């Protein structure tokens, strides 16, 4: 892509923060439920009926303000209602936390505290009319009942107002309702994965807007688990018609979710539900930010609603969501790339999706910056990207992790020859 300047001061601040030990204030926050999302339960093949669950419960813990003369916040709470995913949010959607944000959780199964995890700021949705909050990327920690957070901003002037901790439980069994059922098919590695279902598309949504003609591709669509397969609560997302690009997406941005990489693939649907709840309920986005999500076993999940073969505008690469598709692999891949299964799934999906636009996976395309506050880019200017790019190519972030980013040339080569996968 065309070269552009990053924010040197911002990178220097990150480097300084990495060496700091966090501060000071210990307090107890107020726990409130800020939203729930009902969904059906997964039932093994041959079972009759299923359990009734209310999923996607988000509980918020108000964080104390910094002590006078400092910019550090520290909170620890034990015995909170169970949760599996954590994020930190604040009032202003366009504001970023320049300091170091770290969280850890107390596991219900292990009885131990996890290692500390650093969280970067998350910016994705553009042009939504719903109230939005700023926030960090979320982290999946598994079933937990204790939380500790440290926000160290001693190298910055201030922290955002309205700081709170959002705790997501994808499978809260506190409410009753009607559950759906879906059969599970097992793979050779004994990790269950959803059996692909018939495509469930919105018949009222246009394939391409502004009179753009449909395209064809010789690449076969890979198996994609629809939203019903991971039990997305369709009442949670914004109910207006999805936003579409006027042309088929010509750039694929590759991401990692920045959650743990050590998860059972049988739990991937719960991770999907948690990210969905966090993006919509906590951050105020229209829907899940990513167009597609891949787990470490290579299962591909439909992300944002609107039709998997259509040019749905997601919330994955702030400023360049229009004309692109976002594919995220569950996990953090700074030091080690995703599994071969996951990388090949990304290659197959990218080959098919780019084929709809007649794009070569080894080619380039130009996109126009659509945000006024994206660091290193100018609103209205056009930039050149690889057809398969990393999130960091279009936004000031480390995503998709250095090891994953280094694997992109291999993924491009695979996508150029999908018959060999």
How would you describe what is shown here?
With 421 residues, the protein is of the alpha+beta class. The chain folds into two domains: 161 residues, no CATH class; 237 residues, 3-Layer(aba) Sandwich (Lysozyme-like), CATH 3.40.80.10. 13% of the residues lie in helices and 26% in strands. It contains five helices and 19 strands. The strands form four sheets. Strands 1, 2, 3, 4, 5, 6, 7, 8, 9 and 10 form a ten-stranded mixed sheet that branches. The protein has a five-stranded mixed sheet with strand order 15-14-16-13-19, covered by helices on one side. The chain has a two-stranded antiparallel sheet with strand order 11-12. Strand 11 and strand 12 form a beta hairpin. The chain is globular and about 60 Å long.
How many E strands?
Answer: 19
User: Share of helix among residues?
Assistant: 10-25%
The unreliable regions are: 1-55, 173-214
- Major sheet description: 10 strands, mixed
- From the 3D structure, determine the CATH topology of the largest domain: Lysozyme-like
Mean pLDDT: 77
Approximately how much beta-strand content do the residues carry? 25-35%
Termini separation (Å)? 27 Å
